[in-house]
Amino acid sequence: MITWIIEVIRDNVKCLNVSLSMAKKELKRAHSKSDLGWFWAIAKPLMYIFMFYFAISTGFRNAKEIEGSVAPYFIWLASGIVPWQFISDLLVGGATCFVRHKSIIKHFKYPYTAIPTIPILPKLFIHFIMVGVLVIMALLMGVRPSIYWLQLPIYTLLAFVFIYVWVCMTGLLNVMSADLVEFIKTIRTAFFWLSGILFNTRGKKGAFFAYNPIRYIAEGYRNVFAYHVWIWEQKRLLFNFGIVMILMTAFTCLLYRRLEKRLPELL
Length: 267
Hints:
Elements: H1 2-14, H2 16-30, H3 39-60, H4 73-93, H5 97-100, H6 102-107, H7 117-140, H8 152-176, H9 179-193, H10 207-211, H11 213-227, H12 235-259, H13 263-266
Helix pairs in contact: 2-7, 3-4, 4-7, 4-8, 4-9, 4-11, 8-11, 8-12
């Protein structure tokens, strides 16, 4: 597994310029038919945040402050939705990465381990913009800059690592069975509602909350903006996240080694 991780890092660094170029083309293609272009990539998650804030604050509750949060409820909510938007777009779309780029695999000597990065980079670029918007909103709503904000790159890196392994794993499985995409579409809603994006999961018991990497990442962003908690203060949750990532990475590595030579044929 360690050898595969080194290979992944080496191939992605070597092909970074090509991956960025392809990601840029993919981002332009996605919004080429609209006059406002990239604006819609940002408008969608913003509307998503405001829609849930309006529905929850007026329909379900009076937007009471979350216990332990030093930020307004809106910032607490947005801190969970921003990483969810980055991850959710790739839960399904990432699973088709090898199928969508089969021409590269068949006709060019492009490292397979760099393929999952191509669909991630456009979403990561939009995510950076959304994080910037979140920071501006927090400042406008009276949240003071804090030393805890220095943890933001760490949680962004953890989100990237998780989604890379997920995209690589599901992309390989999708080559074997196209039904996987439909299965992920079915469970994505469950991931949303059971990952604590809209409600406070602190103190919640159960394996799904304890070992859910999406929940951990969303909670991490809230540690930055709302809770002011250092990453090492939640040792148990960090340990659980590490266990899940090791298991996912080991399975993906095994799958990759089994399919590596047969991938062009399977596609």
